[in-house]
Design a protein that fits this description.
- With about 100 residues, the chain is an all-alpha fold.
- It has helices spanning about 5-15, 20-40, 50-65, 70-75, 75-95.
Length: about 100
Amino acid sequence: MDITSDILLQFKDRMHLEGDEDANITRILTASEKELTRICGNYDINTDEVFKELVFERSRYVYNDALEYFNTNFLSQINSLSIAKALDEIIIVGDPDATI
């Protein structure tokens, strides 16, 4: 789970951020990615656009000092990723011929 310079730049562009806040923004993105991975499962921020969007949204809330509102406002997206990951793991670990 490393926030690449490309991910950092994408977030800064989206938020219209300039200046030398890279260390703080990287810390925020890293914490958001780690927390959402804990909740939703292991997704790759570099290849999964839905997960990346959720990391960016959580990071936006943290940056704007409004994290307490994130889980409520994005509960359906968090649940969707969590359920999708759980279903993937059932199919991979369980009987490949089983139906859900």
